[in-house]
Amino acid sequence: MSFALIMLIGLLLDALIGWPDALYRRISHPVVWIGALISALETRLNRGSDTARLLRGALTVAVVIAAATLPALLVTMVLGEGWMAALILGLMAWPLVATRSMYSHVVAVRDPLRAGDLPAARHALSMIVGRDTRQLDSAGVSRAALESLAENTSDGIIAPLFWGAVAGLPGIVAYKAINTMDSMIGHRNARYEHFGKCAARLDDLVNLIPARLTALAFAVVSGRMGAALRIVARDAQHHRSPNAGWPEAALAGGLHVRLSGPRVYGDRVADEPYVNALAPDPDRHSISRGLALYVRAMFLCGAVLVGLAAV
Q1: Which of 6, 88, 180, 237 is buried most deeply by CB count within 10 Å?
Q2: Do residues 146 and 259 lie in contact, with contact meaning Cβ atoms separated by under 8 Å?
Q3: 251-286 pLDDT, tens digit each
Q4: Which residues of the chain have pLDDT under 50?
Q5: Domains of the chain: which residue ranges?
Q6: For residue 194, which phi and psi values (nearest 5 degrees)?
Q7: 253, 230 Cβ separation under 8 angstroms
């Protein structure tokens, strides 16, 4: 069976339909189910000495991955080969790809910003980023929205599709479990520094290749491939994340804007270096340009899956 075909079905369904609100109200969402398991385990196990927290965190990672992946593996084995099996597995992969929701969340920031409603744009931005958005100006809102678009294209779309194309439904499910654990417990603070360390390091590892593929996709469809790749080669390594700097640098180079830079998280100011520092700040129209580049990257991703499925 072609794993690429399964991922192509999931990608197309999500791009065309998204995850309908009616379906969410009825059965919620698989990532929410995974999150509930993570939360329950964290509440019971995140205690004791630093060493105990580290070991209990590693145990949590193993339990969550097993609980999420084993049912997917069993379903894959039961369905066997054939078009019907591929269709059913594609339907099951569908909610694990965030193509449409990514676009919608960024549009929710773009539209009020373009209309001059900065408070509404800040509020919409606060739904997709962790930083304090209350004091951001128009350029700051645009910059943060584009950074979120770049990072989440990698984490929410390219990475799940990559691991799904490699290992089928178990691959995409395992990736989403790891990525959800990182988002919930992979933080460097007093509560999660040790308990979430295994989850955070594993997330870095599984995003290593997809982040670089995302950067390449952005560069290829940007119309400024050479410039984008030069910015990636120069600036990606200076980002706080070993992976997020790649798609951010490619998007910054492709749009000829500067991204990253200092930002506020609660009462802490993170003095981060700029990506593509010599370029101008993004303006209120830059988000539309970023979304157009994102759409082209998704068409490229679909074309690659078609090619892999054909092979």
Answers
A1: 6
A2: yes
A3: 999 999 999 877 666 556 667 888 999 999 998 899
A4: none
A5: 3-310
A6: -95, -45
A7: yes
